Amino acid sequence: MEIGIDSFAAVDITKGPPSSIDRVKAISELIDRIVYADEVGIDFFGIGEHHREEFLDSAPHMILAAAAAKTKRIKLGSAVAVLSAADPVRVFQNYATLDLISSGRAEMVVGRGSFSESFPLFGFQFEDYDALFKEKLELLLQIRSMDVVSWSGNYRAPLNDQLITPRPLQEKIPIWLGVGGTPASFVRAGSMGLPLMIAIIGGETHRFRPLIDLYRKAGAEAGFAPEELKVGIHSLGYVAETKDQAVEDYFPGYAHNFTRIGKERGWPPVTLERFSAQNGRTGALLVGDPEEVAEKILGHSASLGGISRLTFQLDNANLTHEQLKNTMRLIAEKVMPIINQE
After folding, report:
1. Which helix (H) or strand (E) holds 288?
2. Which of 53, 277, 283, 285 has the fewest Cβ atoms surrounding its Cβ within 10 A?
3. What distance in Å separates the CA atoms of residue 33 and residue 27, rounded to the nearest whole number?
């Protein structure tokens, strides 16, 4: 199983809007963490895409390109690229260029995103999100498969024998489909033979098993081999030397941020009781000491029928740069060896 880190390039807004100096510092430290992840042996680093004040990841390929020039082996990709509100031609070109800079380490996770800001920002109607995504995914996959493309659709100008450059170093840049909990999305990924990345940020992880079974069934019916139908999960987590230390470090920032986001979505405020329930043996949160977190990951994999990749989203709790680097060290040195010996 591959272990990765995802980041939304978060910047602390608890004391008000970030200054230019705050933003420079946050990006610089993020790139340093990607370099550190490469050094300690993390398998993958992903950058999300948001268009909000508290996240600096509106152009993830730019952050990844800066990191690519300073790293040697770690895979680099989106987490996720909001394809519904983007031009597939530009998305492909951005990540093909990243693939050249990184000597073949680029990947994409594409999806519809968990926030709606990108739709009005780029002139799209949110109610069209599914039709937009379906059409743009089909075009992106066509561009990946052939250098010269002819295509027409409803949401972009047609392409007539158009050469799409540059081409990546890899024959096919891996494209994962990022999903939440919509059954049609799981079936779509399976029928296309695309690897699946599931955002599981709350509740009980095992509840996704029926949806994963749908994905694998759709893939098999479409003629794809089981090894082609990879499943990954994106989880919120934090690892410290002890569980008590992990909770003490992580909970205050997590509670603040998710209570604030919850006000936008009608969620109840975060309480320690609810947090502890979701951080239990079968809960989605991965906050604890290395041994406990490793055993939970193995348990999640077993309950879901086997997973190929798990990525930790770490920068959602206002943790310091030093705390984030320490948890990455513990993941690499203590969590990953337990997982890899299974």
Report:
1. strand 286-288
2. 53
3. 10
The answer to whether the CB of 338 falls within 8 A of the CB of 295 is yes
Average pLDDT over residues 252-281: 91
User: What per-residue string of b and e applies to 36-49 under the rule 16 or more CB within 10 Å gives b?
Assistant: bbbeebbbbbbbbb
Rounded Cα–Cα distance for residues 8 and 231 (Å): 21
**What mean pLDDT value characterizes the chain?**
95
Phi, psi of 158 (to 5 degrees): -70, 160
Contact by Cβ (8 Å): 134, 103: no
Domains delineated in the chain: 2-340 (3.20.20.30)
Q: Is the predicted pLDDT of residue 115 greater than 80, yes or no?
A: no
Q: Does residue 309 have a pLDDT over 90?
A: yes
Say if residues 67 and 34 touch (Cβ distance below 8 Å).
yes
Which one has a higher pLDDT value, 265 or 27? 27
The answer on pLDDT for 114 being more than 80 is no
Please name which of 70, 285, 81 lies closest in space to residue 175, comparing C-alpha atoms. 81
Locate 90 and state its tokens. 């530009």
285: three-class secondary structure by DSSP:
coil
Position 342 pLDDT exceeds 70: no
Q: Which two tokens stand for residue 278?
A: 């979701």
Nearest of 50, 45, 37, 36 to residue 8 by alpha carbon: 50
Please spell the DSSP secondary structure of 20-63, one letter per residue. Answer: HHHHHHHHHHHHHHHHHHHHHT-SEEEE----STTB--SSHHHH
Question: What integer pLDDT is reported at residue 129 of this predicted model?
Answer: 84
| HEC sequence for 117-134 | CHHHHCCCCHHHHHHHHH
Which of these, 230, 146, 140, 233, lies nearest to 194 by C-alpha position?
230
User: 324 burial class (0-12, 13-18, 19+ CB within 10 angstroms)?
Assistant: buried
Sign for the pseudo-dihedral over CA of 240, 242, 243, 247: negative
